[in-house]
């Protein structure tokens, strides 16, 4: 069964850094586009950054210059390096992976979400 799992969240003071990881497993043929989202208490989930299989990246305005998304296809992983963190960055961060997998001998393509990892930035 296909699964994606995030890790790397934690508590950090303003101005600090964290590196989040998301790793896929299961009957994966290929991972296409990947993305990071975040959701703060009382807010809607918002896009942080995206990366294509070939490494083309896009960032939301609040992430530009501070966050870097990258991937390692051999490890079926995507990363989010966060620098100069601010209290407003506090949220649960989620990984989304567009995955082609094998089910009953047929190929399907679906979005898979991780369970999320908590990032808390203190002032």
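Sequence proposed for the structure above (123 residues):
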């Amino acid at each position: 069964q296909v699964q994606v799992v995030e890790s790397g969240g934690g508590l950090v003071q303003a101005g600090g850094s964290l590196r989040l990881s998301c790793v896929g497993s299961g009957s994966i043929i290929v991972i296409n586009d990947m993305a990071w989202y975040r959701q703060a208490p009382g807010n809607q989930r918002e896009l942080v950054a995206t990366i294509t299989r070939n490494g083309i990246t896009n960032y939301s305005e609040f992430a530009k210059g501070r966050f870097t998304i990258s991937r390692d296809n051999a490890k079926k992983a995507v990363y989010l390096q966060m620098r100069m963190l601010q209290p407003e960055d506090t949220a649960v961060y989620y990984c989304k992976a567009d995955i082609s997998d094998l089910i009953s001998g047929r190929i399907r393509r679906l979005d898979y979400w991780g369970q999320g990892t908590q990032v808390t930035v203190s002032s």
